[in-house]
Specification:
Pathway: Purine metabolism; urate degradation; (S)-allantoin from urate: step 1/3. By secondary structure, this protein is α+β, with helices and mostly antiparallel strands. It folds into two domains: about 1-10 and about 35-185, Urate Oxidase; about 190-343, Urate Oxidase (Roll). It is about 25% helix and about 30% strand. The protein is built from seven helices and twelve strands. The protein has helices at about 35-45, 90-95, 105-115, 120-135, 240-260, 270-285, 340; strands at about 55-65, 75-85, 140-150, 150-155, 160-170, 175-180, 185-200, 225-235, 290-295, 300, 320, 330-335. The strands form three sheets. It has an eight-stranded antiparallel sheet with strand order 1-2-3-6-7-8-9-12, with helices on one face. The chain has a two-stranded antiparallel ribbon with strand order 4-5. The protein has a two-stranded antiparallel sheet with strand order 10-11. Strand 4 and strand 5 form a beta hairpin. Helix 5 (about 240-260) packs antiparallel against helix 6.
Length: about 350
């Protein structure tokens, strides 16, 4: 599954084909010729097969308000994608729509499930939708649900939480991807993206290959900035506090990036920080079977003031040039070793 939001049953647009256009009305006799389209379709079926197919509703927006009493409320805002794959392909092959659950019906299902059952977490809501579609429609072979949560936080007044006022606080975006085949366990992936981090010291990058292609000098002390994306796969849905897991993952990222507030934590490379973070996540959350992270370098380059020696004499450690888009990409997936693999 891709760490970003997407469908598990993507359809390639360039795999379509059309009926032959070789029969034209170029002569009077040609008007009497009627092509046998059924035979032509059968010939095409012998040559091609649908490798991936499905359909659904994207970007279903939902705000759920839990009213604990008249004034004290909680909110969760989601953007939901529902994707279904049917057992039959007759809607594609024959234009037979009898088995299609309309995308509008899928959208309404999202709202009705929220109304009937409430909302606890993105993962639990996605599991609920998977279960509903598989139980209600016996001809559905697979369900894939993507949920992205909008980062609302409660407003505080003089350190006192407000009962029903909230602030959009996009520190990081939470999302999940859940897919389930009929008669099989759901596959659950949690996710975090857009977590932008920066520290001004306690980071270096030295001793890398010195050859004729190298121009980058050793950097014993540098600004370390990145935009973190992380995804993690659950081995089970039983007894999992999905909200707590998400915050635990975020805390592991911050602990290994920033360290203690007084001294920080030293990073010899982005690779090492990434690995230690993933190891910490697996150590703390036993229900996670593997975790994958991306930590691109968001560079802040030193500025050379040597040409302005009459104006600036001291070494520059204050002014840097930000680079808009990160280009150096570091990524890894860390998984638990299976018992059988160790035998």
């Amino acid at each position: 599954m891709s760490p970003i939001k997407g469908t598990l049953s993507h359809i390639q647009n360039n795999n379509q084909y059309t009926f032959s256009s070789s029969i034209k009305d170029s002569s009077n006799s040609a008007k009497d010729i009627q092509p046998n389209l059924t035979v032509y379709q059968d010939e095409k079926r012998d040559k091609y097969e649908l490798a991936a197919y499905g359909y659904g509703k994207n970007n279903v927006k939902l705000l759920y308000v839990r009213r604990n009493d008249e004034l004290h409320h909680e909110i969760r805002e989601y953007e939901v994608d529902t994707h279904l794959r049917l057992v039959s392909q007759k809607d594609y092959m024959e234009g037979d729509n009898h088995d299609i659950i309309a995308t509008d019906s899928q959208k309404n299902t999202v709202y009705l499930m929220a109304k009937k059952h409430g909302i606890q977490s993105p993962e639990e809501f996605a599991l609920l939708l998977c279960s509903h579609f598989l139980y209600t429609y016996k001809h559905v072979a697979e369900v894939s649900i993507n949920v992205e949560e909008y980062p609302w936080t409660r407003h505080y007044v003089d350190k006192v939480p407000h009962n029903h006022a909230f602030v959009m606080s996009p520190i990081a975006t939470r999302y999940c991807q859940v897919s389930q085949l009929r008669n099989e366990s759901p596959q659950i992936r949690g996710g975090l993206k857009g977590l932008r981090l920066l520290k001004t010291t306690q980071s270096s990058f030295t001793d890398f290959i010195q050859d004729e292609y190298r121009t980058l000098p050793d950097m014993n002390d540098r600004i370390f900035s990145t935009i973190v994306m992380a995804t993690w796969d659950f081995s089970t849905a039983t007894g999992v506090d999905f909200d707590n897991v998400w915050y635990t993952v975020k805390d592991c990222i911050m602990e290994n990036f920033a360290g203690p507030p007084e001294t920080g934590i030293y990073s010899p490379s982005v690779q090492n920080t990434l690995y230690l973070t993933e190891k910490s996540i697996l150590d703390k959350v036993k229900q996670i079977s593997s975790v994958e992270m991306q930590m691109p370098n968001k560079h802040y380059f030193d500025l050379d003031f040597s040409k302005f020696s009459k104006l600036v004499q001291a070494e520059n450690k204050e002014v840097y040039l930000p680079v808009d888009k990160p280009s150096g990409i570091i990524y890894a997936r860390l998984s638990r070793k299976s018992f059988s693999a160790r035998l």
